[in-house]
Amino acid sequence: DALGPHSYANDCGGIAVKKGGALATAGRLDVERVELGRALEAFEVAGESENQAAMETMLGEVLWWLGARPESWTHHLRALTLYSELPVNPRGNVILLNATFATLGQQMPEAALPFDNTLVAKIEGTRAWAPLAEAYLHRARTFGQLHRRDDARSDLQRAVALLAKLDDPGLKARTEAEIDRATAEIEADTGS
Protein backbone atom coordinates (compact mmCIF):
# COMPACT_ATOMS: atom_id res chain seq x y z
CA ASP A 1 0.00 0.00 0.00
CA ALA A 2 0.99 3.65 -0.42
CA LEU A 3 1.95 4.13 3.22
CA GLY A 4 3.53 0.73 3.86
CA PRO A 5 7.14 -0.11 4.67
CA HIS A 6 8.10 -0.41 1.00
CA SER A 7 6.89 3.11 0.26
CA TYR A 8 8.80 4.45 3.27
CA ALA A 9 11.96 2.61 2.19
CA ASN A 10 11.59 3.98 -1.32
CA ASP A 11 11.22 7.52 0.08
CA CYS A 12 14.32 7.03 2.24
CA GLY A 13 16.22 5.87 -0.80
CA GLY A 14 15.13 8.92 -2.76
CA ILE A 15 16.28 11.24 0.02
CA ALA A 16 19.67 9.51 0.20
CA VAL A 17 20.10 9.85 -3.58
CA LYS A 18 19.38 13.58 -3.38
CA LYS A 19 21.86 13.99 -0.52
CA GLY A 20 24.43 12.03 -2.52
CA GLY A 21 23.90 14.25 -5.55
CA ALA A 22 24.43 17.38 -3.46
CA LEU A 23 27.59 15.90 -1.98
CA ALA A 24 28.90 15.00 -5.44
CA THR A 25 28.31 18.57 -6.58
CA ALA A 26 30.38 19.72 -3.62
CA GLY A 27 33.15 17.29 -4.60
CA ARG A 28 32.56 15.04 -1.59
CA LEU A 29 32.58 11.68 -3.35
CA ASP A 30 33.70 9.96 -0.16
CA VAL A 31 30.48 10.98 1.61
CA GLU A 32 28.36 10.56 -1.51
CA ARG A 33 29.46 6.92 -1.44
CA VAL A 34 27.89 6.51 2.01
CA GLU A 35 24.59 8.10 0.94
CA LEU A 36 24.40 5.97 -2.20
CA GLY A 37 24.98 2.91 -0.02
CA ARG A 38 22.04 3.97 2.16
CA ALA A 39 19.91 4.49 -0.92
CA LEU A 40 20.85 1.06 -2.24
CA GLU A 41 19.85 -0.57 1.06
CA ALA A 42 16.52 1.26 1.04
CA PHE A 43 15.74 0.29 -2.54
CA GLU A 44 16.61 -3.34 -1.76
CA VAL A 45 14.07 -3.27 1.11
CA ALA A 46 11.49 -1.70 -1.21
CA GLY A 47 12.16 -4.31 -3.91
CA GLU A 48 12.94 -1.59 -6.46
CA SER A 49 15.22 -3.41 -8.91
CA GLU A 50 15.51 -0.48 -11.30
CA ASN A 51 16.60 1.85 -8.50
CA GLN A 52 18.91 -0.85 -7.12
CA ALA A 53 20.60 -1.14 -10.52
CA ALA A 54 20.94 2.64 -10.73
CA MET A 55 22.54 2.81 -7.27
CA GLU A 56 24.90 -0.06 -8.05
CA THR A 57 26.17 1.68 -11.19
CA MET A 58 26.41 5.03 -9.42
CA LEU A 59 28.38 3.43 -6.60
CA GLY A 60 30.60 1.77 -9.18
CA GLU A 61 31.29 5.13 -10.79
CA VAL A 62 31.99 6.91 -7.49
CA LEU A 63 34.30 4.15 -6.34
CA TRP A 64 36.08 4.29 -9.69
CA TRP A 65 36.82 7.99 -9.17
CA LEU A 66 37.91 7.29 -5.60
CA GLY A 67 40.44 4.76 -6.95
CA ALA A 68 38.76 1.68 -5.46
CA ARG A 69 38.75 -0.27 -8.74
CA PRO A 70 37.98 -3.80 -7.42
CA GLU A 71 35.11 -2.55 -5.26
CA SER A 72 33.92 -0.45 -8.19
CA TRP A 73 33.72 -3.54 -10.38
CA THR A 74 31.73 -5.38 -7.70
CA HIS A 75 29.01 -2.74 -8.04
CA HIS A 76 29.21 -2.56 -11.84
CA LEU A 77 28.76 -6.34 -12.01
CA ARG A 78 25.76 -6.20 -9.65
CA ALA A 79 24.20 -3.52 -11.85
CA LEU A 80 24.87 -5.57 -14.97
CA THR A 81 23.20 -8.57 -13.30
CA LEU A 82 20.04 -6.48 -12.83
CA TYR A 83 20.25 -4.98 -16.33
CA SER A 84 18.25 -7.72 -18.07
CA GLU A 85 15.25 -6.92 -15.83
CA LEU A 86 15.17 -3.26 -16.89
CA PRO A 87 13.17 -1.66 -19.68
CA VAL A 88 14.99 0.21 -22.43
CA ASN A 89 15.53 3.58 -20.77
CA PRO A 90 18.34 5.99 -19.91
CA ARG A 91 19.05 4.26 -16.58
CA GLY A 92 19.71 0.96 -18.29
CA ASN A 93 21.84 2.69 -20.90
CA VAL A 94 23.98 4.29 -18.17
CA ILE A 95 24.70 0.88 -16.65
CA LEU A 96 26.24 -0.29 -19.91
CA LEU A 97 27.98 3.03 -20.58
CA ASN A 98 29.56 3.06 -17.12
CA ALA A 99 30.79 -0.50 -17.60
CA THR A 100 32.24 0.58 -20.97
CA PHE A 101 33.98 3.62 -19.46
CA ALA A 102 35.41 1.52 -16.63
CA THR A 103 36.86 -1.06 -19.02
CA LEU A 104 38.21 1.60 -21.35
CA GLY A 105 39.71 3.35 -18.32
CA GLN A 106 41.65 0.18 -17.67
CA GLN A 107 42.81 0.08 -21.30
CA MET A 108 40.66 -2.95 -22.16
CA PRO A 109 38.63 -2.00 -25.25
CA GLU A 110 38.11 -5.67 -26.11
CA ALA A 111 36.20 -6.03 -22.83
CA ALA A 112 34.20 -2.85 -23.51
CA LEU A 113 32.93 -3.97 -26.91
CA PRO A 114 30.33 -6.47 -25.60
CA PHE A 115 28.80 -3.73 -23.44
CA ASP A 116 28.64 -1.43 -26.48
CA ASN A 117 27.16 -4.19 -28.65
CA THR A 118 24.50 -4.95 -26.04
CA LEU A 119 23.56 -1.29 -25.78
CA VAL A 120 23.26 -0.88 -29.55
CA ALA A 121 21.21 -4.08 -29.88
CA LYS A 122 18.85 -3.08 -27.07
CA ILE A 123 18.19 0.40 -28.51
CA GLU A 124 18.09 -0.45 -32.24
CA GLY A 125 14.54 -1.79 -32.08
CA THR A 126 13.21 1.42 -30.54
CA ARG A 127 12.60 4.87 -31.96
CA ALA A 128 14.97 6.41 -29.41
CA TRP A 129 17.14 8.21 -31.96
CA ALA A 130 19.31 10.24 -29.61
CA PRO A 131 20.30 7.30 -27.39
CA LEU A 132 20.94 5.19 -30.49
CA ALA A 133 23.18 7.86 -32.01
CA GLU A 134 25.06 8.03 -28.70
CA ALA A 135 25.38 4.23 -28.58
CA TYR A 136 26.83 4.18 -32.11
CA LEU A 137 29.18 6.98 -31.16
CA HIS A 138 30.47 5.16 -28.09
CA ARG A 139 30.90 1.91 -29.98
CA ALA A 140 32.76 3.76 -32.74
CA ARG A 141 35.21 5.05 -30.14
CA THR A 142 35.71 1.54 -28.81
CA PHE A 143 36.27 0.24 -32.34
CA GLY A 144 38.78 3.06 -32.76
CA GLN A 145 40.71 1.94 -29.69
CA LEU A 146 40.72 -1.56 -31.16
CA HIS A 147 42.16 -0.10 -34.38
CA ARG A 148 39.08 -1.28 -36.29
CA ARG A 149 38.69 1.89 -38.33
CA ASP A 150 36.21 0.51 -40.86
CA ASP A 151 33.83 -0.61 -38.10
CA ALA A 152 34.29 2.74 -36.35
CA ARG A 153 33.53 4.65 -39.56
CA SER A 154 30.40 2.56 -40.14
CA ASP A 155 29.06 3.39 -36.68
CA LEU A 156 29.89 7.07 -37.14
CA GLN A 157 27.97 7.03 -40.44
CA ARG A 158 25.00 5.45 -38.64
CA ALA A 159 25.17 8.18 -35.99
CA VAL A 160 25.36 10.90 -38.66
CA ALA A 161 22.29 9.44 -40.39
CA LEU A 162 20.35 9.73 -37.14
CA LEU A 163 21.09 13.45 -36.78
CA ALA A 164 18.22 14.24 -39.15
CA LYS A 165 15.81 12.52 -36.75
CA LEU A 166 16.81 14.61 -33.71
CA ASP A 167 14.29 17.36 -33.05
CA ASP A 168 16.12 19.26 -30.30
CA PRO A 169 18.58 21.67 -31.97
CA GLY A 170 20.89 21.76 -28.94
CA LEU A 171 21.03 17.98 -28.70
CA LYS A 172 21.57 17.74 -32.44
CA ALA A 173 24.47 20.23 -32.30
CA ARG A 174 26.08 18.47 -29.33
CA THR A 175 25.76 15.05 -30.97
CA GLU A 176 27.19 16.39 -34.23
CA ALA A 177 30.15 17.92 -32.36
CA GLU A 178 30.77 14.61 -30.57
CA ILE A 179 30.66 12.77 -33.90
CA ASP A 180 33.16 15.24 -35.38
CA ARG A 181 35.45 14.81 -32.39
CA ALA A 182 35.26 11.01 -32.52
CA THR A 183 35.91 11.09 -36.27
CA ALA A 184 39.03 13.20 -35.73
CA GLU A 185 40.25 10.86 -32.98
CA ILE A 186 39.74 7.77 -35.09
CA GLU A 187 41.29 9.24 -38.23
CA ALA A 188 44.28 10.51 -36.25
CA ASP A 189 44.96 7.04 -34.81
CA THR A 190 48.00 5.54 -36.49
CA GLY A 191 47.93 2.26 -34.56
CA SER A 192 46.33 0.14 -37.29
| Helix amount | over 70%
**SSE class:** mainly alpha
Annotation, overall tally of beta strands? 0
The backbone outline, from C-alpha atoms, is: globular
Low-confidence stretches: none
Largest sheet: none
Compute the average pLDDT. Answer: 87
Q: Separation of termini?
A: 59 Å
Helix-strand sequence = HHHHHHHHH
Radius of gyration, in Å, reads 18 Å
Query: Total helix count?
Result: 9
Strand content: under 5%
Polypeptide structure, described:
The chain is mostly helical and 192 residues long. Helix 1 packs antiparallel against helix 2, helix 3 runs parallel beside helix 5 and helix 5 runs parallel beside helix 7. The longest helix has 21 residues. The protein starts with a helix and ends with a helix. The mean pLDDT is 87.
Give the helices and strands, then pairings.
Elements: H1 5-25, H2 29-46, H3 49-65, H4 69-83, H5 90-105, H6 109-124, H7 129-145, H8 149-163, H9 169-188
Helix pairs in contact: 1-2, 2-3, 3-4, 3-5, 4-5, 5-6, 5-7, 6-7, 7-8, 7-9, 8-9
